[in-house]
């Protein structure tokens, strides 16, 4: 195998700060590209993606080699090494020169421990639960001098996944081992304040290859959440609150506990910017979901087990500068680019003719569990637009 960064600039991978769900660490490769550990089943899906689905999935940009490296402070970091044969589809790559200790990850790691500590001090004797993170993201807004930076708070979920991922890699592999990562379009790069709802779709979450133990675990999660009753459950969320300038964040543990009515209220909260309900977004989101539904109904043999659906919009309207944001792709007239709907996470997606699994469990017809979830999602959003 090629040594790291032969003939190409190496790239220091940063945690993707807008990751709201999932358990795999998503990393920022450049402004328009993220990457994640390669799973052959997901690669197979992207390589044989039906044309009709391309507008509803991130663009696949290739594969990159990644290795673990300790920085000067002894902290593990991840460095991507573009291989010689790979087209440079992402423009000039940032150099990983200099000490990455000042990277976003380390700044956030510091803020994160501050949050944990201040929370423990305010609630003596109570450990910081994973679900409690959602209430304490505001503290991440202040720097060491207590000043608020001009913009973003960081969703703690991506940092939580990144820390776990680095720990796993550090304990399992030596520094020179090369890992393959998928390069994918960063679907929120065009938004100033990306509001993201991550929905786990379908009534079944386990893949065909799941062990009996994993299968039982996933079935239980579905039965105890809205996955069984609605075919969809909240897996994560961030919503920009225009009144405070902070992101409100919820994680998968919050989503699992919701009743059908709680799910509906969370959808409403996702469209609420702290001042008002963004009713202007309901129609474009519903139209996009209906277009996706039509496409899914035509995909015979596909089963999107454990995949997620992202609903995205910009949390701050820039009316006067809306035209300055061009060129980003205007969708068809019915769908201004201010909303987007994308399917992600295909590690357990199966279909006839999959390269990674040439003899998959035969599934005929479309994915009815996914369709059930989409139909319910559309119904609930329509009921919100009617003010019910």
TrEMBL record:
Alphabetical list of InterPro entries matching this protein: IPK (IPR005522), IPK_sf (IPR038286)
Keywords from the UniProt entry: ATP-binding, Kinase, Nucleotide-binding, Transferase
Superkingdom of this protein's organism: Eukaryota
Keyword flag Nucleotide-binding: yes
Statement: the UniProt record of this protein carries the keyword ATP-binding: yes
Gene Ontology cellular-component annotations: cytoplasm; nucleus
Top-tier EC class: transferase
GO molecular function, one term: inositol hexakisphosphate kinase activity
EC number(s) on file: 2.7.-.-
A biological process from GO: inositol phosphate biosynthetic process
Homology family: Belongs to the inositol phosphokinase (IPK) family.
Protein name: Kinase
Species of the source: Donacobius atricapilla
Lineage, uppermost ranks: Eukaryota, Metazoa, Chordata, Craniata, Vertebrata
């Amino acid at each position: 195998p090629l040594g790291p960064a032969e003939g190409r600039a190496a790239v220091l991978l940063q945690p993707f700060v807008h990751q709201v769900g999932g358990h795999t660490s998503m990393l920022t490769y450049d402004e328009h590209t993220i990457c994640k550990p390669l799973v052959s089943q997901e690669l197979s899906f992207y390589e044989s993606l039906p044309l009709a689905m391309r507008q509803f999935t991130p663009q696949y940009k290739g594969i990159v080699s990644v290795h673990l490296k300790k920085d000067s402070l002894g902290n593990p970091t991840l460095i991507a090494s573009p291989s010689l044969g790979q087209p440079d589809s992402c423009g000039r790559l940032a150099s990983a020169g200099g000490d990455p200790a000042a990277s976003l990850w380390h700044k956030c790691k510091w803020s994160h421990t501050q949050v944990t500590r201040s929370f423990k001090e305010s609630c003596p004797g109570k450990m910081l639960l994973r679900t409690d993170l959602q209430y304490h993201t505001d503290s991440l807004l202040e720097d060491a001098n207590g000043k608020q930076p001009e913009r973003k708070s960081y969703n703690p979920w991506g940092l939580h996944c990144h820390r776990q991922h680095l720990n796993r890699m550090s304990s399992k592999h030596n520094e020179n081992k090369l890992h393959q990562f998928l390069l994918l379009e960063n679907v929120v790069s065009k938004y100033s304040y990306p509001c993201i709802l991550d929905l786990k779709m379908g009534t079944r979450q386990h893949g065909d290859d799941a062990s009996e133990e994993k299968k039982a675990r996933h079935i239980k999660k579905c039965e105890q959440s809205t996955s069984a009753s609605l075919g969809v459950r909240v897996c994560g969320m961030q919503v920009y609150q225009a009144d405070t300038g902070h992101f409100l964040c919820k994680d998968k543990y919050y989503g699992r506990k919701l009743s059908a009515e709680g799910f509906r209220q969370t959808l409403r909260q996702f469209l609420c910017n702290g001042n008002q309900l963004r009713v202007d977004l309901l129609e474009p989101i519903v139209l996009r979901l209906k277009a996706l539904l039509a496409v899914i109904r035509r995909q015979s043999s596909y089963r999107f087990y454990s995949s997620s659906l992202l609903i995205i919009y910009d949390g701050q309207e820039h009316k006067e500068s809306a035209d300055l944001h061009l060129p980003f792709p205007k969708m068809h007239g019915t769908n201004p680019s201010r909303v987007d709907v994308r399917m992600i996470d295909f590690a357990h997606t199966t279909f006839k003719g999959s390269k990674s699994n040439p003899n998959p469990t035969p599934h005929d017809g479309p994915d009815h569990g996914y369709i059930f979830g989409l139909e319910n999602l559309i119904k609930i959003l329509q009921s919100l637009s009617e003010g019910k």
